[in-house]
Amino acid sequence: MRSAQAGVIGLGSVGAFALFELARRGVEVVGLEAFGVGNDQSAVGGDSRLFRRLYREGPAYHGLLERALELWRETDARLPGAFVQCGALSIVPQGSLYAFDLEAYGERFGVDYELLDADEVAERFPQFAHPGGDVGYWDPAGGYVRTDLVVRDAVDRALEHGATVIDLPALAIEPGPDGVVVRTAEGDWRFDRVVVAAGARTPLLLPGFGRIAAPQLQVMTWFQATDPERFRAATMPVFIREGAGFHAYGAPALDGLHVKVSGLTERRPAVFDGLAYDQSVTPDDLRDAEARIPLVLDDLHPLPVRTAIYPELYSHDGRFVIDFVDPEQRVLAATAFSGKGFKMANAIGEHVARVLVGEAVTNPDFGLARFADAPTPTPTDPEREAHADQAA
């Protein structure tokens, strides 16, 4: 049986950065990725993710966000274009809880932002459909991260520091007093500790997670601009549009022509057949996107020219899970980041590595104790047999 000090299962956003941070600290680490680094089978897909410094989700994320901003700037200095600070605009109903949360976060942490009324939004950002009675929160530190570039870069840097990457799925995780056995179709590995960063597929490896988190499918859509100059990063910010019965968000046209807008369709449960899932975009998805895009942005052809669908994992309370799942503290789950995680994936990966090597402890805000009424999501081999048969 082969062995190493640490294993990372899943090399998407958080897993890639955890692999790098462990390797950088001199840990003998092995990463297992079922679909290869930079694949389109996980929540990493879709070209870009938003970064917002003005963050309504609460103070638990502040430290990670600030550290992430430092790290993204370092990455962009080394890999130009990986992080583009074009600003972020949140358009939300005036007087709403969303607006209150943004202002409370900004005031508590001294985050620089500007409150714009509807006419000011329309004047400064004419790409957006007139917000009516809504208001805008301008976050100059916001922008977008190029997912494909930074994940590949993190893994490449991990390899430079001595990490090993294996393009195989983990079939079972078996922690014990002497380490953790990870079974694959091409033999087993024994690790001192393991990070499970498998995203929406986490419940396949840690079946108890099905009681505290749910995998869902998110449709992403791209629309062709009729006036491309208005939708480049030099003139358009990343954005969130809250209201009208849906929550839309998007980024400038990375290719200068096609604008990504997500959240126009309804999420639905992700059902896995082995490791695969249905990637079909339905006629209802297209109808919803076509009907809702004029409520968000002007000067776009309303029918999507590109679509993609990715699986994401949402905890039942919407917060991350970063915690050990076994009494020996050998298996660390780092998951349920969907909707929040990529913007701070570098800082989360650093935190995970620090926990594994004893430089830090887990944060109770992201711990499993908050799900006290649900059974602890421990690895169990018998519940994995069917999945192992399908995936082998």
Give an overview of the whole structure.
This protein has 392 residues and is of the alpha+beta class. The protein has one domain (2-391): FAD/NAD(P)-binding domain. 24% of the residues lie in helices and 29% in strands. It has nine helices and 22 strands. It has helices at 13-24, 62-78, 97-109, 118-124, 147-160, 202-205, 283-292, 345-356, 385-391; strands spanning 2-9, 29-32, 48-51, 83-84, 88-93, 114-116, 134-139, 143-146, 164-166, 172-176, 179-184, 187-196, 213-224, 238-243, 246-251, 258-262, 268-269, 272-273, 276-277, 306-315, 321-324, 331-335. Strands 5, 6, 7, 13, 14, 15, 16, 17 and 20 form a nine-stranded mixed sheet that branches. A hairpin with a 6-residue loop joins strand 21 and strand 22 (331-335). Helix 1 (13-24) packs parallel to helix 5, helix 1 (13-24) packs across helix 8 (345-356) and helix 2 packs across helix 8. It is globular, with a radius of gyration of 21 Å. The relative contact order is 0.20.
Compact summary:
The protein has 392 residues and is of the alpha+beta class. Helix content is 24%, strand content 29%. It has helices spanning 13-24, 62-78, 97-109, 118-124, 147-160, 202-205, 283-292, 345-356, 385-391; strands at residues 2-9, 29-32, 48-51, 83-84, 88-93, 114-116, 134-139, 143-146, 164-166, 172-176, 179-184, 187-196, 213-224, 238-243, 246-251, 258-262, 268-269, 272-273, 276-277, 306-315, 321-324, 331-335.
